[in-house]
């Protein structure tokens, strides 16, 4: 399973591949968008781990369990 941000990055990268031969300014814009989206992945990861913690799915909860949940559910292949 991928997060929304991971799916968005994939979409931007595929769009970049299509546009590479057409317009340099557009390419630079898409590269900037991809870079920004990638910079948000660590924040998104922490938000997911915090939501898992707040949901209290496993008792007892630990920070390690939250990280394991994220990695099991959302880690890219």
Can you count the beta strands?
A: 0
Low-confidence stretches: none
Helix content: over 70%
How many discrete structural domains? 2
Number of helices: 4
What structural category characterises the helix and strand content?
mainly alpha
SSE string, helix = H, strand = E? HHHH
In whole angstroms, how far apart are the ends?
A: 10 Å
Would you tell me the overall average pLDDT? 80
Task: Report the sheet-strand fraction.
Answer: under 5%
The general outline is elongated
Rg calc? 16 Å
Main sheet makeup: none
Characterization of the model:
It contains 4 helices and no strands. With 77 residues, it is mainly α. It has 2 domains: 1-39, no CATH class; 41-77, no CATH class. It is elongated, with a radius of gyration of 16 Å.
Structure characteristics:
0% strand, mainly alpha
Overview in brief:
By secondary structure, the protein is an all-alpha fold. Helix content is 77%, strand content 0%.
SSE layout and pairings?
Elements: H1 4-19, H2 24-39, H3 41-55, H4 63-74
């Amino acid at each position: 399973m991928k997060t929304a941000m991971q799916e968005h990055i994939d979409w931007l990268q595929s769009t970049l591949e299509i546009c590479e031969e057409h317009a340099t300014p557009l390419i630079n814009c898409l590269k900037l968008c991809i870079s920004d989206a990638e910079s948000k992945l660590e924040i998104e990861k922490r938000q997911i781990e915090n939501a898992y913690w707040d949901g209290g799915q496993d008792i007892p909860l630990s920070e390690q369990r939250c990280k394991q949940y994220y990695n099991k559910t959302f880690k890219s292949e």
